[in-house]
Amino acid sequence: MMKEMSIDLETYSDVNITKCGAYKYAESDEFEILLFGVSIDSGPITVYDLACGDTIPKEILAALSDGNVTKWAFNASFERICLSNWLKKHRPEYFTGYSITEDPAGQYLDPASWKCTMIWSAYMGLPLSLEGVGAVLKLHDQKLKEGKDLIRYFCSPCKPTKSNCGRTRNLPEHDPEKWSLFKSYNKRDVEVEMAIQKRLSKYSVPDFIWNEYHLDQEINDRGIMLDMDVVENAIAFDEKSKSALMLQMQNLTGIDNPNSVAQMKEWLSDNGIEAESLGKKEVKTMLPETDGNTKETLTLRLQLAKSSVKKYQAMQNAVCKDGRAHGMFQFYGANRSGRWAGRLIQLQNLPQNHMKDLAEARAIVRSGDYDTMQILYDDIPDTLSQLIRTAFIARNGYKFIVSDFSAIEARVLAFLTGETWRSKVFAEGKDIYCASASQMFGVPVEKHGINGHLRQKGKIAELALGYGGSVGALKSMGALEMGLSEEELQPLVSSWRSSNPMITAFWWDIDRAVKTTITQRIQTEVRGIKFFYKSGMLFIKLPSGRLLSYVKPCIGENQFGGESVTYEGIGSTKKWERIESYGPKFVENIVQAVSRDILCNAMKTLRHCFIVGHVHDELIIECSPEVDLNVICKQMGRSPDWMPDILLRADGYETQFYKKD
């Protein structure tokens, strides 16, 4: 009796998967599966050439919906989504969805019997590409290098030319030699996927992580509704607004192309301003020193620089036939902490909204009334930018409940370090920024009250200094722009550290524990966080039981001549490289990872609700009007079993469209 399958597909679609995502790619009328490579129970690999008339055996088709057969693939969500659409279209008798009829997630194969080698690799701190993992693990069988060219040739439309007789697609008969190589490529991908499983077999992924992955797949399957009237009108408004702004700038400056940095610099120079850069930050700092035409021109340039339209275009690209955007969340996208990464529309970095009349502005865009928009709003690009969130809507007959944790990272840091005065602040429901300023300066601080001016210093210190940050961290957080002087910064750092002795001690306790584990290969522990070394890997065991993995750790020398820890991973260059770290940085990884686990715990608690989106500390739930907001917030704020004493609080609001309340 079949227990598991390893699968790899080669497919064709006229939809650009990079821009539009796998869900839209696979639902296209032009979509088809070309090759189906499969190994059953680690047996020989068979490639079924569907493009040339092969058929997939019935027992394999039946296994795709069988919860007792585990399906393995690298980036398994792609195979599962493609096979869901293909089965519904070609072999509906073998398709079984999941969830209830009201849930949009039910139109796909149940992810519960699928496992993904890419997720396994990410859990081990390895790259998120099959080629990358194969290279790092030095597998005997590597992904074939010709693959990209073959995919470009067979898997997407081609340009009609004289030499290809005007065709728009390459079929097997157009190059039998390439097609034969393509089948070898498909087989090799299954081999590499199975080799990764074998190589990683001694580091098993806990069942609760697979459970989290299945929940993630469910949320991606469900998707989130888009108001396409808002999206399309916003794109049209942006085009009109940009044309009007360009014309205004041309009239003011006489420049042919106000977007040209060289032309603009020359014009500014003629008007007495030497500008090294025309980035947004630099233009903002120039504004107070200018007046008249120059000031107006720079203000218009800032408006033109708003990139709001890109998010609306991403929505237009991603929206599927059901009016929803699917596949917006990459499970384990951040492999240092295991947090999610955004995909397609990138919910994680949407502009905030601060407009009091948000609903009114939204209604104007929705109705397509550009003239009214022009009369009522001076800065149309900024207005459109603030309205981006509102394009996400609850479907008819439903509402959104948006609930988020209050100061989650600060609470986790206080709990892990035993900095009790901070935990007391949270227990009493007080403002952490005021309390921090009060602790630092030894005076009472109240928001909009006594010593209220110190709250800003408390806030910037809290945001910049929790993970070993110093003067540089304060500057990059915008301390100087907020009115702090250069002379105030170092005293601020010293004051914050002396008022948080347990946090400061925790950084260096973690630093020592990591170094001891790496050099002596022994297990160490700091306040319930465990460190151990196994087969060339450093592991950090979190309170949830989840492991953080660091590949090939060793002790090196930092730029100051001191000892530092280095390990292999994806660095800031997006390439596999040696990364340097030290105590406070490991603390940041741990705090963000524990915060992620707390959010995940809330997602599991509220799994029976329709979760349609999430950010680091926030859940977006699509629910019927009767669902009680307070009940949702109370459920979300429950402490996890593995950290029962942490004080959590979740606040929320109800809305028909997404916004920052």
Question: How would you concisely characterize the structure shown here?
Answer:
The protein has 661 residues and is an alpha+beta fold. The chain contains 25 helices and 20 strands. The mean pLDDT is 91.
Explain the overall architecture.
The protein is an alpha+beta fold. It is 45% helix and 17% strand. The longest helix is centred in the middle third of the chain and has 26 residues, at 228-253. The chain is globular. The protein starts with a strand and ends in a 6-residue tail after the last strand. The mean pLDDT is 91.
Which labels suit this protein?
661 residues; alpha+beta; six-stranded antiparallel beta sheet; five-stranded mixed beta sheet; globular
